[in-house]
């Protein structure tokens, strides 16, 4: 979805993407990027995410299954706006400070919007403020435990 969205957005404004990580779909994703003539750098497994965040103006995480993704947390701590799949964990992390996308078109629209440095900076600052309000970096578990307990008790 990211590669397709990047291809659509690139028709409106010049941009490039970075794909971190690897897995069984990597070959197909690389082939798709080549076929769509999208400017993407594949970095594979990245144990040091800070350098990648420093050169990025936004983070996109489009997954089918996620709990509370550390990649989103790290992006928010770094003050980067986030576009994510419409899943409960990312939705809670982002609150009103991120974009939950459910289509290639909505991701492409947001990429074009985030290409404006002022928009990216404003949304990144809101993301940083949000993550600091919901997670204490020194002791993140009490807030998360309370949320899980509330959800579990509400379902029993």
Task: Give a structural overview.
It is a single chain. This protein has 156 residues and is an alpha/beta fold. It has a single domain, classed as Glycogen Phosphorylase B (Rossmann fold, 3-Layer(aba) Sandwich). Helices cover 53% and strands 12% of the residues. The chain has 8 helices and 5 strands. The chain has helices at 2-10, 26-35, 50-54, 70-77, 88-94, 104-114, 117-134, 141-155, and strands spanning 17-20, 40-44, 59-61, 82-85, 99-101. Strands 3-4-5 form a 3-stranded parallel beta sheet, sandwiched between helices. A two-stranded parallel sheet has the order 1-2. α1 packs across α6 (104-114) and α4 (70-77) packs across α7 (117-134). The model has no long low-confidence stretch (mean pLDDT 88).
Structural descriptors:
8 helices, alpha/beta, Rossmann fold, 156 residues
Brief account:
With 156 residues, the protein is of the alpha/beta class.
What is the alpha-carbon Rg in Å?
Answer: 16 Å
Tell me which oligomeric state these chains represent: single chain
> Roughly how many Å apart are the termini?
36 Å
Q: So, the CATH homologous superfamily?
A: Glycogen Phosphorylase B
CATH fold call? Rossmann fold
Q: Please indicate the count of domains.
A: 1
Approximately how much helix is present in the residues?
40-55%
Structural class: alpha/beta
Our estimate of the beta-strand percent is 5-15%
């Amino acid at each position: 979805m990211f590669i397709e969205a990047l291809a659509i957005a690139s028709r409106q404004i010049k941009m490039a993407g970075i794909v971190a990580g690897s897995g069984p779909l990597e070959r197909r994703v690389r082939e798709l990027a080549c076929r769509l003539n999208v400017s993407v750098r594949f970095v594979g497994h990245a144990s040091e995410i800070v350098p990648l965040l420093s050169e990025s103006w936004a983070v996109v995480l489009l997954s089918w299954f996620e709990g509370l993704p550390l990649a989103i947390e790290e992006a928010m701590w770094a003050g980067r706006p986030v576009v994510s799949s419409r899943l409960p964990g990312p939705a809670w992390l982002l609150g009103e400070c991120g974009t939950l996308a459910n289509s290639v078109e909505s991701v492409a629209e947001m990429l074009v919007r985030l290409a404006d440095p002022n928009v990216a900076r404003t949304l990144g600052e809101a993301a940083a403020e949000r993550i600091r309000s919901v997670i204490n970096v020194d002791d993140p578990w009490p807030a998360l435990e309370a949320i899980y307990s509330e959800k579990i008790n509400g379902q029993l």
